[in-house]
Specification:
The chain has helices spanning 65-69, 92-105, 113-126, 202-217, 263-275, 286-294, 332-345; strands at residues 10-11, 35-42, 46-54, 72-74, 77-81, 87-90, 138-147, 159-169, 180-185, 222-226, 234-237, 240-246, 249-252, 278-281, 298-305, 309-318, 321-324, 356-359. It is an alpha+beta fold and 360 residues long.
Length: 360
Amino acid sequence: MTATPNLNFQLERASNLKAKPAESELGFGRFFTDHLLRMDFTRKGGWSDPRIVPYGPLGIDPAASVLHYAQEVFDGAKIFRGEDGKLRSFRMKEHAQRLVRSAERLCMESPDADTIVACITELARVDRDWVPSGRGTALYVRPTIIASEAFLGVRPANEYIFFIILSPVGSYYAEGQKPVKIWVEETQVRAAPGGLGEAKAGANYAASIKAAEDAKARGFTQVLWLDAIEHQWLEEVGTMNLFLRIGDEVVTPPLEGTLLPGVTRLSVIELLRKRGVKVTERRINIKEVRQAHADGTLKEIFGSGTAAIISPVGTLGFRDGNLTVGNGEPGEMSRTLYEEIVAIQRGESPDPFGWMTEIG
């Protein structure tokens, strides 16, 4: 991590502005705003030249390290337009800190967290008209760092590009808040102990695509990942952190190096504990899930993440048949958590945790 003490943003406004899509057509990650922010790093000069320019190609060398050795990390955060018209970002500092940690894991340079937040805020101000206002919509923020040095050798690069793009989004899953069908993957793995699982690196997502496509071919929306060694211990659901409501307890897998430390995961834990709900971070065996279903104590399963916020799980698919969670409909806890988080994000409810930051 390298600090950037002087942020004198240069602004080149786009001469041809894009037509903005209707909010009903947004989907997720299909549209991008008129500008992006870019800053460059060299070992000699550090981070320099922060600038906002028209959205377009970055122009990297074919020998850039990112293309050959996958030195790339990113994060995802959201900005919301409330009913009062004000723009607010959700836990942006935590997202920036996670990007810094991801970069450190891949031996990459990154701006410090305060600089990342300042860059996101400046770009959001320029493209503020792109922030949608409908319930369930947001401006998705994608800060990214790539190794840009032209060098064919396996070592940390000496040059990097930090850039931010913005995308107005709706629901991540086509099902919206309807429960999704999840395939329990018992052979392929997303991350192994000692690997990159806790970093938000593109390599992790590339490793997940084959299993996700196989699950979709079976008629499922995503994958429930099990551990890489015994294929028995629950880890993540798709690209989200996982929660199970078993009896009067909510259980979530612990952060032991293979799971992404989700900002929404942390928010769910804080909200539930504020309600007085017992939340336990511990390892969960798939056999325990089957047993809890058999004895009627498995009440809910849901995922949490920036993109979907809360995604209830209605079905778990196994090679020997499907397991219906609850009655196959969204559970009370997942439904109320979604509503509570959205209300805070949109400025409709008080923000007792100080999660939201107004963007002027």
